[in-house]
Design the sequence.
């Protein structure tokens, strides 16, 4: 029965030496094992497929059969600038994505401050649930729900009818509202986490020095949560840019970049591929601007 | 006589044959000589392969009639539902499918692209005189007198309206085209390049000086006029539709009160207030046909299928499931229900379908027979369509 209590003997010095000597190689092999699948996945499936999609942008199309012919032309890129509808759509998508991001920030900051610093634990839990709730439902479910809300004989108009006004129906502003609804959690959660990390003493110090609440937010809170806002905006901005089902379901005749890609994907794949460079460019420029502002280092 | 009398394309074709071939009206088909790749035709049907892969519209391939087919022939049917004609063309080009239920806006592309094979109608016994005259030898599936498709059914693009808002049936498509439409902002239009033909049909009636005689044969000037009309329409559009469920929801929810639709969508909405009408200008329509892939791995099963589904009974089942006029007119006489269905969808009413221009892929060669100009191709239509929505 004594064996139960046996303590493993400590390794001898020689054993430790051997283990230490074998570690780098073993580590390397282990690392290889660990990294091969994700790297292969990233390179072959992700980057690879993206590469083949993007290279199509330089190819031709047979005008009658719509078959793609390999080659090299910049015509597809030129069309983005020369076709007024394409250019307008690119600009419109950019403005929509910026509007969504801005609205998400304006909504997220006060809610985050309230949740993190003022609300009771029960209220905080309730708000956390309501904010993340949209993440629990499927994307299409949310979209159809918004369609039902904004439809002519729908919930919103029923709600507004007593006041003699009606909702926006299906147009660009509905697209912005819906996109904000969809991507708001991606802004609210990092901002909330950031606000929570601000020690309460900062607020006390600010108040002691005579700052009113607005000034405290502007000079204490906002600079501290800027990295979180940037992180959230990367999500809201890029997700909005790439979306096309929202425009299709609640946008009326509003077109976004995705609408053009979707319409072209079967009929003219090279133009669709060329157009997929547009959001990539926008996001790269956005990240570059953000980097210039020095916000990425603290992410 | 009215300014514009829509003609059956067979009639037009016959006239073309007269001019082109010096009175040799005996040759069947369209009378236009269109260059097509040389794809061999099956000579006889051999052993079934045991499999059949079909690209089809929703409701065309259902267990209700595939089970018996599999039992009879041993061919297991694998359907792949496609949502648009363009998707069908893309899928057929993968070479993984044997058959497609192609609409006219896809078929000519497939034929000229060499994606589908000519059909040996001798091997399809059920392709008989029962096929309604309006679906035989049409340009979208018969090229140079050679059949490439077996007719399935057809349907018109009707003008649907909300009776509570509109009142009596509009006698003209002007309510969806003119800038001063009383329903501006609540108009819907079909979201596909082929819809340009609907603008052309309207222009044929109202702007005869443009000289459009076939909405699928537009030269550059005529296409530009159609595009201008579509851009004008864009300002009064509430929503474009390509998804049938969304279109129904839009009409039922009140966002749309007038616009292009199909009889089946009106029926599916289950709303008494929604009515359909065929305005004086006429309209376009979709005519579907089974087409055989030129690289079909299972051609024997495919031929057996085309024969099987052309029987009055199976063709009728497909027509009722999808909600369209069946190609096999004999089915209409088979029961009271069938009769009612055929009546509702104008199955054997050629006078009705005389006013309908079947969807046809526009090609550079003018399908109206003009040889002094080059017409705009489907690619031109596609490019134009994407600039309309802005």
Sequence:
């Amino acid at each position: 029965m004594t064996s139960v209590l046996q303590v493993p003997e400590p390794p001898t010095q020689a054993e430790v030496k051997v283990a230490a000597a074998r570690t780098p190689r073993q580590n390397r092999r282990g690392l290889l094992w660990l990294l091969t699948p994700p790297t292969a996945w990233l390179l072959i499936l992700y980057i690879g497929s993206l590469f083949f999609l993007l290279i199509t942008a330089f190819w031709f199309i047979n005008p009658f059969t719509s078959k793609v012919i390999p080659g090299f032309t910049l015509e597809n890129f030129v069309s983005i600038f020369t076709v007024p509808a394409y250019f307008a759509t690119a600009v419109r998508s950019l403005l929509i994505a910026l509007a969504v991001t801005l609205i998400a920030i304006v909504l997220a900051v006060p809610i985050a401050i309230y949740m993190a610093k003022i609300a009771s634990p029960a209220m905080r839990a309730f708000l956390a649930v309501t904010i993340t709730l949209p993440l629990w439902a499927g994307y299409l479910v949310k979209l159809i729900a918004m369609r039902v809300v904004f439809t002519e004989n729908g919930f919103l108009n029923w709600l507004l009818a007593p006041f003699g006004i009606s909702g926006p129906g299906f147009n660009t502003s509905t697209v912005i509202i819906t996109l904000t609804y969809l991507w708001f959690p991606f802004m609210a959660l990092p901002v909330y986490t950031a606000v929570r990390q601000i020690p309460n003493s900062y607020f006390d110090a600010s108040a002691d020095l005579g700052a009113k609440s607005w000034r405290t937010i502007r000079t204490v809170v906002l600079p501290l949560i800027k990295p979180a806002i940037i992180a959230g905006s990367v999500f809201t901005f890029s997700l909005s840019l790439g979306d096309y089902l929202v425009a299709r379901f609640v946008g009326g005749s509003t077109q976004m970049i995705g609408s053009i890609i979707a319409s072209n994907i079967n009929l003219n794949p090279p133009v669709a591929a060329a157009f997929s460079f547009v959001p990539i460019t926008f996001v790269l420029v956005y990240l570059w601007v953000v980097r210039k502002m020095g916000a990425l280092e603290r992410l | 006589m009215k300014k514009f009398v829509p003609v059956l394309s067979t009639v037009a074709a016959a006239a073309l044959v007269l001019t082109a071939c010096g009175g040799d009206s005996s040759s069947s088909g369209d009378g236009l000589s269109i260059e097509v790749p040389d794809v061999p035709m099956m000579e006889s049907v051999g052993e079934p392969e045991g499999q059949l892969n079909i690209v089809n519209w929703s409701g065309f391939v259902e267990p209700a009639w595939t089970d018996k087919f599999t039992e009879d022939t041993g061919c297991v049917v694998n359907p792949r539902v496609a949502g648009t004609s363009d998707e069908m063309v893309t899928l057929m080009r993968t070479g993984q499918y044997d058959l497609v239920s192609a609409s006219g806006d896809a078929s000519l592309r497939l034929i000229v692209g060499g994606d589908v094979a000519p059909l040996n109608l001798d091997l399809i016994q059920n392709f008989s005189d029962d096929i309604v005259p309006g679906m035989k030898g049409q340009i979208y599936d018969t090229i140079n007198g050679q059949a490439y498709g077996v007719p399935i059914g057809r349907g018109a693009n009707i003008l649907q309206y909300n009776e509570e808002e509109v009142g009596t049936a509009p006698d003209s498509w002007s309510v969806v085209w003119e800038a001063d439409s009383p329903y501006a902002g609540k108009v819907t239009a079909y979201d596909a390049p082929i819809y340009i033909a609907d603008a052309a049909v309207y222009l044929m009636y109202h702007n005869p000086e443009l000289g459009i005689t076939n909405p699928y044969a537009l030269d550059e000037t005529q296409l530009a006029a159609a595009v201008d009309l579509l851009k004008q329409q864009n300002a009064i559009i509430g929503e474009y539709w390509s998804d049938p469920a969304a279109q129904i929801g839009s009409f039922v929810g009140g966002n749309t009160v007038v616009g292009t639709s199909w009889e089946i969508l009106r029926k599916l909405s289950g709303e008494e207030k929604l009515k359909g009408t065929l305005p004086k200008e006429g309209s376009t329509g979709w005519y579907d046909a089974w087409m055989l892939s030129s690289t079909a791995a299972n051609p024997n099963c495919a031929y057996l299928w085309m024969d099987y589904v052309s029987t009055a009974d199976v063709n009728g089942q497909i027509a009722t499931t999808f909600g369209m006029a069946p190609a096999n007119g004999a089915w209409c006489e088979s029961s009271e229900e069938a009769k009612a269905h055929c009546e509702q969808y104008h199955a054997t009413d050629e006078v009705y379908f005389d006013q309908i221009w079947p969807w046809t892929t526009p090609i550079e060669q003018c399908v109206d027979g003009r040889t002094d100009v080059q017409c705009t191709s489907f690619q031109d239509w596609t490019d134009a369509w994407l600039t309309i929505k802005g």
About this structure: Residues 81-298 of chain A form a domain with the MetI-like fold fold (CATH 1.10.3720.10). DSSP finds twelve helices and two strands in chain A. Chain A touches chain B at residues 61-67, 83-86, 88-89, 147-148, 151-154, 169-170, 249, 252-253, 255, 259-260, 263-264, 266-268 (CB under 8 Å). Confidence is low (pLDDT under 50) at residues 1-5 of chain A.
